[in-house]
């Protein structure tokens, strides 16, 4: 598999994004949703900001208050044994009955625009900012599905009651309408197909079941994009392979001659995130017809291997022009990058079931 990583990589780093909040620093500009709009490439960045802490023993957790529309900051000491600071992304609570974690940063969604797909300018303000009680810990990892002039944007909505997926709609990337939560917690990595198939909308989603099951990919159908049903299990973890611990949809699926191609992420038990592909039947996307044995893209480049959370390539969107698949992806939960892959090479590399 030939992979052409852009010379400009990383395309956007935290240093390119001015903090929106006073006294905060941007620690991530990553996992962006991708769209083409008005002759430009839109990268809808997940921007993660955290309150600056002068003291390494003090960790601060920002929380959005929907009543005041302000952020509140919880200050915790790393000596406090009631909390678990081992994962830099979260603060665990070692108390019976506390089924949630604080996040060490708050994410919101901000647009970066480009004429050439390589050089991006970041908008001065957020586009989608937390706005309700299901988003008090932030909004993350957006995907964008274009249908005609309408762009559906959906993202993880994080709060103490769980991580679910919410939907908004825009036609101009200036204003949007909020359509509420479409998949209840715990669910992430929703991918809405860009057209109806046999009269139905389809979406992949990734629940995290607790008593039975694992973080694996499901598919559901809808008549209106808001109410989803007829859920089916789509594909799962594979012991001993690159996708044996967690998987989830990545880029918005696109149509090829051989089927719907989905570039998804898979992680190992030691949290190494790679991208691979799965091919679904054109007429019935609940049927898997082929899958990558080995990953297509692995976190090999320095900006993928090292960062806030190293060893991660995580795509939320591609642009497909003829045989060229431009895969935009978050690198190390820190930056945005892009690489080009050949569509025919991807299709030839799959193992057909
Ligand atoms: C995980 C990671 C974080 C994210 C939280 C909440 O811990 O993916 O980046 O903020 O989940 O979604």
From TrEMBL:
Domain of life: Bacteria
Record carries keyword Glycosyltransferase: yes
GO MF, one example: hydrolase activity
Keyword rRNA processing among UniProt keywords: no
Keywords: Glycosyltransferase, Hydrolase, Transferase
Pfam families listed in its UniProt record: Glyco_hydro_130
Annotated organism of origin: Bacillus carboniphilus
Protein name: Glycoside hydrolase family 130 protein
Family to which this protein belongs: Belongs to the glycosyl hydrolase 130 family.
Gene3D superfamilies in alphabetical order: Glycosyl hydrolase domain, family 43
């Amino acid at each position: 598999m030939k992979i052409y990583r852009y010379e400009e990589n990383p395309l956007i780093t935290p240093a390119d994004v001015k903090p929106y909040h006073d006294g905060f620093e941007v620690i991530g500009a990553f996992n962006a949703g991708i769209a083409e709009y008005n002759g430009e490439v839109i990268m809808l960045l997940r921007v993660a900001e955290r309150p600056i802490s002068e003291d390494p023993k003090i960790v601060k957790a920002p929380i959005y208050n929907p009543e005041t529309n302000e952020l509140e900051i919880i200050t915790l000491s790393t000596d406090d044994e009631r909390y678990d600071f081992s994962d830099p992304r979260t603060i665990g609570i070692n108390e019976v009955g506390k089924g949630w974690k604080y996040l060490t940063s708050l994410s919101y969604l901000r647009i970066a625009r480009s004429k050439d797909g390589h050089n991006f300018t970041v908008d001065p303000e957020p586009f989608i900012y937390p706005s309700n009680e299901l988003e008090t810990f932030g909004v993350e990892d957006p995907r964008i599905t274009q249908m005609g002039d309408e762009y559906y944007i959906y993202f993880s909505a994080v709060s103490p009651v769980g991580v679910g997926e919410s939907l908004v709609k825009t036609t101009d990337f200036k204003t949007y309408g909020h359509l509420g939560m479409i998949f209840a917690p715990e669910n992430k990595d929703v991918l809405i197909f860009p057209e109806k198939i046999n009269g139905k909308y389809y979406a992949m989603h990734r629940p995290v079941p607790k008593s039975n099951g694992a973080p694996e990919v499901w598919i559901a159908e809808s008549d209106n994009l808001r109410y989803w049903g007829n859920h089916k299990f789509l594909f799962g973890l594979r012991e001993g392979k690159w996708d044996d611990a967690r998987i989830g949809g990545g880029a918005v699926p696109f149509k090829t001659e051989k089927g719907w191609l989905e570039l998804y992420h898979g992680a190992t038990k030691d949290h190494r995130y790679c991208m691979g592909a799965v091919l679904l039947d054109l007429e019935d996307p609940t049927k898997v017809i082929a899958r990558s044995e080995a990953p297509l893209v692995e976190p090999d480049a320095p900006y993928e291997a090292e960062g806030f959370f190293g060893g991660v390539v995580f795509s939320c969107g591609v642009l497909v022009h003829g045989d060229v698949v431009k895969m935009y992806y978050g690198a190390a939960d820190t930056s945005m990058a892009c690489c080009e892959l050949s569509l025919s090479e991807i299709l030839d590399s799959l193992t057909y079931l």
